[in-house]
Amino acid sequence: MTFEPISRQSVSDQVFGRLRDAIVSGRYAADEALPSERELSATFEVNRHAVREALRRLQQLGLVQVSQGGATRVLDWRATAGLDLTMALAGAEDVLPVATLERDVLEMRACIGADAARLCAERAAPGARAAITEAVDRYAAAIPDLARMGEADLALWRRIIEGSGNIAYLLAFNSLTAGALAVGHVPAPRRTAELLDVAAHRRLSDQIARGDVAGAQRTARELLALTAIGAAAAHDEAGETTSERG
Amino acid sequence: MTFEPISRQSVSDQVFGRLRDAIVSGRYAADEALPSERELSATFEVNRHAVREALRRLQQLGLVQVSQGGATRVLDWRATAGLDLTMALAGAEDVLPVATLERDVLEMRACIGADAARLCAERAAPGARAAITEAVDRYAAAIPDLARMGEADLALWRRIIEGSGNIAYLLAFNSLTAGALAVGHVPAPRRTAELLDVAAHRRLSDQIARGDVAGAQRTARELLALTAIGAAAAHDEAGETTSERG
DNA sequence: ACCCGTCAACTGGTTGGACCAGTTGGCCGG
DNA sequence: CCGGCCAACTGGTCCAACCAGTTGACGGGT
């Protein structure tokens, strides 16, 4: 049992969180004007500067557009927000079921993971390949402890993606592993099948080490699909989230 | 000929840009302490609040870690930054050649595009499929004008990704198409081959419309690989960017 | 010589208020 | 009815003070 550090959210953090959730969950419609900074600061009973910091962060996330003189407008985050928003998408249950989001994240993980494994087998530097073998060993050494195996597994995949030499994949990996609803925090039972497949991990590592491009891609795809398929079967068609938008 | 809106960067935007470039380009080492807010505000000759807003944004991007009482420390962005950072990565030429970054973005585009096409053919709602056919028509209608074709092509891919119902793919698409070095702004000659392949676009649209899952995936992969291969051949091995890190 | 509490001198966090700068929309004169 | 003007918004910037944590050096006790 370990203790989490007590969260000391600053005032502007709280304002940010509230507004973010309000926007993502659709309580503010797209293109709607947010209350003025002065109004918000009165509502939240905080200084205007705190509100401003929050708004700047929301703008950076792609959730609002602030413009001097005019009102701060809410954007359609499906059109303007980047992948970093995934960290914040948990609080939009009514407009976007977590189950769907989880499925999406796992699909993306499988897609990128397989391609990264391919690229890694194709062009990773010798040192990077050695680091991967090493990471698999650490993963295997943690075998009874699921939590530690999960950590080691994440570290292994980071090595593989680093080995692929693709910065975009690496950043996407960061986006997906950060945040509450992250790949690493997927409920244990769902990842167990994948985590316990030590043989597949070993095989993947070997294929990368010896430059078996096609094999590495296939193994990675199979390994990562385990969870995705399980998740898909679990909630079948988790509801249509695709809607018509002009 | 159209005019771009004159950029009226606010003071804090400029501070943000300067610090971002300094960090990404490695002028501040990872784990190094940034100058204090008061110091920075004196250096840039701006108010401390402007510096604070910039720092909050940098923190959100995953470039720095600010902590009350302690110093604001620079993070290793390769480990902590999300995909949204791609928009800012142009100014790190010395530590990360644009050619490499461009290749990476194209690889990711191909990977996600193909999978989105697959998912779209598999589970898109009828309305979404119709919207795609429509988008292809608009794309084909723009035929002589490369710029307009590029726009229409982006719109088409957005429809396909929306049709896949995968929010993560959609957000990643946003991350990749935003920013200066975005997919949409890739130099014309490089995308020309792909853009001119109207037949393949039509085929893809048809396969999605009729639910040919494997076919759609294959067509999309081939279509998106055109550019990637061209780019890869152009600068061959654009230099190793993988380094050992503890 | 070493350990440990204390405290001063940092760090960022928050506040209030004043003023600048750009946008909007209504009002009034032509 | 049109068009310019102006007041009343909006966000942008600044100053100055103080609150709240962290850090490290200093000095007394062991």
Automatic annotation (TrEMBL), chains A, B:
Q: Spell out the Pfam families in the cross-references.
A: FCD, GntR
What are the record keywords, sorted? DNA-binding, Transcription, Transcription regulation
Where in this chain does the record put each HTH gntR-type domain? 9-77
Question: Which molecular-function annotation in GO is an example for this chain?
Answer: DNA-binding transcription factor activity
Does the record carry DNA-binding as a key word? Answer: yes
Tell me where on the tree of life, at the top rank, the source sits.
Answer: Bacteria
Which InterPro entries does this UniProt record tie to the protein?
GntR_C (IPR011711), TF_FadR/GntR_C (IPR008920), Tscrpt_reg_HTH_GntR (IPR000524), WH-like_DNA-bd_sf (IPR036388), WH_DNA-bd_sf (IPR036390)
Its recorded name reads DNA-binding FadR family transcriptional regulator
| Native organism | Actinoplanes campanulatus
Q: What is the lineage of its organism?
A: Bacteria, Bacillati, Actinomycetota, Actinomycetes, Micromonosporales
